[in-house]
Amino acid sequence: MIIALDFQSDVPVYLQLRHQIVIGIAENKLQLGESLPTTRQLAKDAGINPMTVSKAYQVLKAEGYITMDRRHGAKVSQEIRNNGFDTLKESFKLLIAEAKIKGISYESIQSYLKSMYEQ
Amino acid sequence: MIIALDFQSDVPVYLQLRHQIVIGIAENKLQLGESLPTTRQLAKDAGINPMTVSKAYQVLKAEGYITMDRRHGAKVSQEIRNNGFDTLKESFKLLIAEAKIKGISYESIQSYLKSMYEQ
Amino acid sequence: MIIALDFQSDVPVYLQLRHQIVIGIAENKLQLGESLPTTRQLAKDAGINPMTVSKAYQVLKAEGYITMDRRHGAKVSQEIRNNGFDTLKESFKLLIAEAKIKGISYESIQSYLKSMYEQ
Amino acid sequence: MIIALDFQSDVPVYLQLRHQIVIGIAENKLQLGESLPTTRQLAKDAGINPMTVSKAYQVLKAEGYITMDRRHGAKVSQEIRNNGFDTLKESFKLLIAEAKIKGISYESIQSYLKSMYEQ
DNA sequence: GTGGTCTAGACCACG
DNA sequence: GTGGTCTAGACCACC
C-alpha cells in the first residue's frame, strides 16, 4: 500500500490520506481486519507530521472505516457501517452534473462506473 | 432557481453557490445563455455578502460555466468548455470506492446516474 | 478599417477601440491626417454606445494620436507627439519578463519584433 | 526584493504586486524555488491589506508562477508552465505599434530587449 | 504560524 | 446600475 501525497494540492493532506485508504479498502489492497501502520510509522514513511496521520485516522474511525484501540493500533473494520446512499448522493449529483455539462456521454460514465465497481 | 445554503457546512459558501449553479445548469433549471442574478441581488436574496457571490461567479467564469459581460451582467455560457473526463475520474473513483465499501449495489448507483441524466 | 470587439474580454471596450485604432495607424491602414468615422457612425457600426466611442476618442486625443474639432470631426494627427520611450518601457519590461520566464528565446522575440516593425 | 506601489495608478494594487514579482523572477531577483514573504508580512511591509496580497498570490498561482504549500507558504515554482508565445503576441503587437508611431527606432527597442534578456 | 473565508461598507471604472 | 477593488478586522482549517 503506497501513499502518494501532493503537497501542492488544495485537498488537505489528512484528507488525501483518508481518501487513499478508502480507495485501498475498496480495491482490496487493504483487507477487512488488516492492521494499518502506526501513526508514527506512516508519518515517517510519508514525510508528514504524525498529527496529520492521526487526524486522518480519527476521521476514518468516525466514519466507521477503521477501528482504533491502544492495544491493537488501527485496523480496517471487520464490518463497515452502512450509512446508506443518501450521504453520497449529493456528491454524485454534483459530479454527474459536471460530467453532463461537459458533454460526457451517459454511456462513457456508465462504463467507467462499471469498471471501477468490478475491480 | 432557489439557492439553499448551509452555513454550518464545511464547504465554503462561495463553493456551495458554485455547486448549486452547476447542478442548476445540468438540470436545465438554468438554460444556456440565461442571465444570472446580479451579484448584489443574489447576495441580498441569499443573505450573504456581495463579495462572496462575486467569488462564486469568478470561479464559474474561470471554469467556463458562465461569462461576464460589462453590459449585461453574468450569463450561463452558450458553449461550455469541455475539459474531458479525466479531471473528474479521480473524484468518481473515490466516490465509487465509498459506495462499494458501504455495500451499495452497482445497480442502485447506475439507476441514480440514469435518473440524473434523463432530467 | 474593421473594428473587432470582444465583449467577453476583460479589456474595456473603449480601450479595445483605442488599441485597434493605434494598431491601424501603425500598420498604415489609417493614414496620417485621415478622417475617422463620427462617434455616432462608429458606435452604430460596432453596436456600442456612442459614449464609449467618445471616450476612446478622448483618450486618443489626450495621447496625441488624433485631433478633434467640431468642424472637421476626428482625424489622425499629422504629427504624432513623441513622448519618448520611457512611457513604454515599463510595459515592455513586464512583457519581456513574462516571455523570458516562459522560456521564449531571445531570438524568437527579436524576429517577431522585427517582423512587426517592418510591416 | 523591494516592492514599490503607486496608489495613484489605474493599475490595481494586486496587479502591480503581481507584475513586480513576475519582473523579479525574470531578473533573477527571485530564484526558482525561493520562498516569498507570507501574505501578512508582505502586506505589512507594503502597507496594504493582507487580502490584497492574497489576491496577487492567487493570480500568480493560477498562472503557474508560484506554488502555495500549506506547510511552507508561497514559493516561486521550480518549473514555470509554458503557455507559448501566442498569448503574448497581441500585447507585443500593440506596444510595438505605439513605439513605431512615436518614431522610436527598431534599434532602440532591440537594444532594450537585449539588455533585459542579459540580466 | 500559515493561508482561506467572510463580513460590512466604501469607492471607482465601465457602459 | 453593473462588477471590480480595497480596507479593517474577524474567525477558521491546516500543519
Task: Write a structural description.
4 copies of one chain form a homotetramer. Chain A has 119 residues and is mainly α. Helices cover 53% and strands 7% of the residues of chain A. Chain A has 5 helices and 2 strands. Chain A has helices at residues 13-26, 39-46, 50-62, 86-101, 106-117, and strands at 66-69, 73-76. A two-stranded antiparallel sheet of chain A has the order 1-2. In chain A, a hairpin with a 3-residue loop joins strand 1 and strand 2 (73-76). In chain A, helix 2 crosses helix 3. The mean pLDDT of chain A is 90. Chain B binds chain C through residues 67-71, and chain C through 7-8, 12-13. Chain D binds a DNA duplex (15 and 15 nucleotides) through helix 3.
Percentage of residues assigned to helices of chain A:
40-55%
| Dominant shape of chain A | globular
Strand content of chain A: 5-15%
> What is the number of E strands of chain A?
2
List keywords for this structure.
globular; DNA-binding; homotetramer; mainly alpha; two-stranded antiparallel sheet; 119 residues
Summarize the SSE layout with pairings.
The structure is a homotetramer of 119-residue chains.
Chain A: H1 13-26, H2 39-46, H3 50-62, E1 66-69, E2 73-76, H4 86-101, H5 106-117
Antiparallel strand pairs in A: 1-2
Helix pairs in contact in A: 1-3, 2-3
Chain D binds a DNA duplex (15 and 15 nucleotides) through helix 3.
